[in-house]
Amino acid sequence: MPLPLVARLPSVPWPTSGVLAVDGKTAKQGIDDNGRPLHMLNAFVHDVQAVVGQWSTGAEKTNEPTLLCRHLVALLETYPMLRLITGDAMFAQRPLAELICGQGRDYLLQIEANQGDTLDRQVFQCHPH
Fold first, then answer.
1. I want to staple 82 with a disulfide (CB 3.0 to 4.6 A). Which of 7, 20, 28, 100 is the partner?
2. How far apart are CA 30 and CA 46, in angstroms?
3. Interhelix angle for 64-78 vs 94-102, to 10°?
4. Whole-number CA gyration radius for the chain
5. Is the pTM of this model over 0.85?
6. Phi/psi of residue 68, each to 5°?
7. How far apart are CA 43 and CA 53, in angstroms?
8. Which residue has the higher pLDDT, 89 or 5?
9. Where do the H-state alpha helices sit in the chain?
């Protein structure tokens, strides 16, 4: 098993509490074994400007939130300083939010206006009337 980034870059001042951003990207010039564009899920630590996880959605035949659920526990065990996970509206799904909270972490996930019921519930939880 390769050494985690934190062990390979000892000169980088790792934060005691970090933010992990997750986002998917499609490589315009990369193709998978089936000739389709290569789509990757990236996990990026803001404070040290480093990618600490990267997985192909095609290789595991899944979507980004499910792929993150599969790898999140191991990622947080390797980088225990990560306390907040951020992502766009695609990641605003109950199973992922429950997994993040179950690991004792917080999340900041975008909720689109067209998710009215979800948006209303979240606003109410954050700002009860």
1. 20
2. 25
3. 10
4. 16
5. no
6. -65, -40
7. 5
8. 89
9. 5-8, 64-78, 94-102, 116-126
Q: pLDDT band for position 60 (50/70/90)?
A: confident
Task: State the virtual CA torsion across 97, 4, 19, 77 in degrees, nearest 10.
Answer: 40
The SS3 call for residue 123 is helix
Two tokens at 128? 């009860």
| Phi and psi torsions of 29, nearest 5° | -105, -10
The alpha carbon of residue 115 and the mean position of all alpha carbons in its chain are separated, in whole angstroms, by: 20
CB 122 within 8 A of CB 58: no
Q: What residue type is assigned to position 128 of the chain? A: P
d(CA 2, CA 34): 28
The answer to whether 80 and 74 have CB atoms below 8 angstroms apart is no
Q: Higher confidence at residue 47 or residue 95?
A: 95
